[in-house]
Design goal:
The protein contains 3 helices and no strands. The chain is an all-alpha fold and about 110 residues long.
Length: about 110
């Protein structure tokens, strides 16, 4: 009956296999959890990016519409950005000078 002993599984070997299987199962569960978390983060970031792009597109559309109403005589090939009045340019220069901590050099006498 020596063949019967060879067909029975070794209890030590079986225990090791069960332990390694449980270890692999835990690792797989951890990876699934990590992947789910990463996927959620990516979806949230994609949503933020899409929302930001939508806001930018709307702002550009409003700027183009506003600039088109003010400057109806402009050609389509010119700068489509908003055009500032001289007083607005002066104020913008002051703001930029404060941000850069540089004195403003305008042609005006103060």
């Amino acid at each position: 009956m020596w063949w019967f002993k060879k067909t029975l599984p070794d209890p030590e070997r079986l225990t090791k296999l069960e332990e390694s299987f449980e270890k692999l199962r835990r690792q797989m569960a951890g990876l699934e959890l990590e992947w789910t978390d990463t996927l959620d983060r990516v979806k949230r970031l994609m949503g933020r990016i899409a929302k930001r792009a939508d806001v930018v597109e709307r702002a550009e559309a409003q700027t183009h519409v506003g600039a088109g109403e003010i400057e109806a005589g402009d050609s389509a090939g010119s700068n489509p950005g908003p055009q500032l009045t001289p007083s607005q340019l002066s104020i913008q220069a002051r703001i930029l000078a404060r941000r850069n901590r540089r004195p403003i050099h305008t042609g005006e006498a103060t």
